[in-house]
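Can anyone check this?
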Amino acid sequence: MAIVLSLFVTLGGIVKKKYIAITALLFLILGGAGAKIWRDAVIKEQEQFRYKKAKQFCRSEHYNKSLIVVYAYKKMLGKSEYHNSKWQKLELEILQNLRDIPRLVFLYEQNPDLLLENEEASLWVARAFFETKFWKKYQKIVEVWHTKKTRVFEWFILEVDTLIKRQKRKQARKKLLENKTKFRDKAELWIRLALMETQENQFAQAWEYLEEGHNYDSKNADLRLFRGQVLESLGRDKSARVEYVAAYLSNPKNFVIVDRLAEFYVRQDNYLLAIETWSRLTEKAPAYIWQKLAFYQRVAINKKQKITKENGMLQAINQLPIREFWSEDLAKESHNRNQYLYWLRVLHFLKNQQYDKALEWLQQYSDEEWNPRLQNNLHRILFHKKYGGFTQGGTSFIEVKSSCGELGKFLDDAARRERLQLAVPRNHDLLNFIKTPYVFPALLLCHKWLEAAVILHENLPKGKLPEWYAQQIMHAMSVVRDKKRAIYFAESYPEMLSLQLLKAELLIAQGDVVVGCDILRILAKRDDGVGIRASWLLSLYYLELRNYKLAKSVLRLHKKLLYSVLGQEVLARIFLLENDKTRAQKIYQKIAQKSVEAKVFLAKEAFQNRNWQEAEKWTVILQKQFPDQLQFAENYNKIQQMKNQK
């Protein structure tokens, strides 16, 4: 009995333990399932939050921020989960707004059906395929939209561009002219017609098409941009600037138009205006534009514009040590065929006097035209340093005129002489200067890369300098450093009177008027160009003090100054301030052909006297001389209004 009871107890314990184990296992299963449900709910909530955040960024046009959120979540999802998901559709929307064609093409390759539901995106990708000559892929997209297109003109212009690309210009022109009436209000039609004419050097006909398009849509930015390009190609830079600025004013938030205006200023070597133009952009602009701003601030004029957008290369440029052009971080990006990295590397070699490496680097990218004038001059100098000549294989590096002052003229002439197997003058001062390391900052000064020029100069030991170079580098220091630094430089070369003159101007500009004028009085006694300019500056100073007697006496120190246009302008101002308008007017009439100040005075005087014919005459002359000064255009319109009120 005891044995049976003992067995029963043992079996009972076993059953109880088994029950507990089963119960525990059941709780574990249920708990795990609950945890998974809870975790899935959290993940879903986080996804909804992130998606909502990405959509908010997109709605507020912060597309790059939105894209960061999308790509972060893309990594978390598998390829199959991401495919056709709301996240991928949002990516398409963002890329479409950014006009990020390379990524749109990549997205099309991953999911063609998604893009083929979107007409605008399909147009962008089709254009990309036609540009890269993937004709089968291009044709597939065109066929899909053939029967359901709503953007009729965009597909029409794409077809025209395809004909032009395939050298079927007659068919393209015929198609455009046949649809001229149907699409007369579309700027792109007139631009294509004008473009084909310019390619055949028929600029008069091109301009007629642009004028016709302008009559239908005078505020179209694309039309104004192309008018600017035509005028620029004809060398009418001031008129071109009017068109570029008008395009910008019609759509100042469009980063493409802002970039075009800034690039125009770059081609004019006006980096200050280029940097100011790019600086107006918001962080919504793509990274490649910020790269330009970061680069030109590093080499031209550092306006210290804060750049918040940062990718690998942009961040590396922004984090460069002061007065340096290269770093290990930039080296990691150097696989990119990027012109800004290219120039930073060249400048790094020049700064460290690694001239052979600089030459190698230039030759490695000789097929690229990244500022060809500078490339050409730099290659000639480096080649001369290493081999003694100015041309390679009988030709220059890039056949383009340097347009770089006397230094550029000498380099052009030396290369020309070598090609003709004529001797290059060996006793030329510039030939000797080219052998010094100062030639590199001089070349950069010539191309208005002031910041880079000063950095290179400051890295060199003090030496004997030609006065023209010393003058230019001192001016650059006053712009990119400060006036004190430039004044200190002038004091290192007391024998250079042109530097002392510039020093006096800088002293007056920074408020040290007494000291500056004392220097001018000493220099004004000289019977040369320095004396004449010093006298002119003194006369302006006395004019400001209303000491007209002293102003006149200083002008009379030099007959050349007194009877020059500058001297006569000062004299006329003195007579006006003395209320002797008759004598002032006689002077202005005498110098009007050569003096802008005189033309402005005579136009204003005629307007006030209601002499509309005379006012119109001078205003038209000023308009032609300064087409980019919109004030003259406004004045002309006022004159026409007043004439019509007679």
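Reply from J.R.: I decoded it. Residues 371-435 form one domain.
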